[in-house]
Amino acid sequence: MDCSSHNVMTEAEIRTMLADAGLRPTRQRILLATLLFGKGDRHVTAETLHAEVAAVGEHVSLATVYNSLHQFKDAGLLRELAIEGTKAHFDTNTSNHNHFYLEHEGKLMDIDGVRVDGVPEPPEGMRVSHIDVVIRLVKA
Length: 140
What we know:
β2 and β3 (87-91) form a beta hairpin. It is globular, with a radius of gyration of 16 Å. The relative contact order is 0.14. Strands 1-3-2 form a three-stranded antiparallel β-sheet. The chain has a three-stranded mixed β-sheet with strand order 5-4-6, with no helix packed on it. α1 (11-20) crosses α2 (27-37) and α3 crosses α4. Helix content is 31%, strand content 19%. It has 140 residues and is of the alpha+beta class.
């Protein structure tokens, strides 16, 4: 299953996605994955996802949300973007793309068409996995 272009996913598809990624489809992982991947591509922080869990009347500790996000990232289901040193943002779109960061809202928006020239050759035995470009925006 191509996880780079998530559309709306059913619970069965989410269970399969987790299993294919080597993650046991526990109740908490299914809940978190449904919130993450059930509505198409999106950007979340652990705190915003934790609030969504509470909003649907469920309880998952913030530590479990953090751990699950990192497990999803390690399994290749999410991309982690460090925007503000202390708060990690996670992107369900794992394709190579870039972002606008709306500083006044703390939100990310996907953008296409960014070209990066002059990327140095990586050291021997290494390759560039992707280049993250974040263009920060403030109100004019």
